[in-house]
TrEMBL record:
It comes from Vigna mungo. InterPro entries: AB_hydrolase_1, AB_hydrolase_fold. This is AB hydrolase-1 domain-containing protein. Belongs to the AB hydrolase superfamily. Residues 20-120 form the AB hydrolase-1 domain. It comes from the Eukaryota. The lineage of its organism: Eukaryota, Viridiplantae, Streptophyta, Embryophyta, Tracheophyta. It holds the Pfam family Abhydrolase_1.
């Protein structure tokens, strides 16, 4: 895996041919999905990652200017998908990740077949 995947603690699980990417909400990390992943791994390749500043992400990668807007987080999501060579995915975003996924999908609609927003925040 590349720099973005390493910086965001990316994990890819499962054996399916279609990708599903799970983005966690504010104040949590990818472990929030631990009870859902077992139901997905037989049918999908599941991508888990931490938004910068969450979980055990390296604080040296944090840039106050980059992460002063959600566009910085959306750029990270796109970088992860690019490194993993994901051509198409279903994105599930909880809380702030719902908006991160929306912004990323506007920038690169070709990468997203569906967006599922769980309690997405408006900003």
């Amino acid at each position: 895996m590349g720099v973005a995947a390493e910086a965001h603690n990316v994990k890819v699980l499962g054996s399916g041919t279609e990708y599903i990417v799970l983005g966690h909400g504010f104040g949590t990390d990818q472990s929030v999905w631990k009870h859902f992943v077992p139901y997905l791994v037989d049918d999908y390749r599941v991508v888990l990652y931490d938004n910068m500043g969450a979980g055990t992400t390296n604080p040296e990668y944090f840039d106050f200017e980059r992460y002063s807007t959600l566009e910085g987080y959306a750029s990270d999501l796109l970088a992860i998908l690019e490194e993993l060579q994901v051509e198409s995915c279903i994105f599930v975003g909880h809380s702030v990740s719902g908006m991160i996924g929306a912004i990323a999908s506007i920038a690169r609609p070709d990468l997203f077949t569906k967006l599922v927003m769980v309690g997405a925040s408006p900003r």
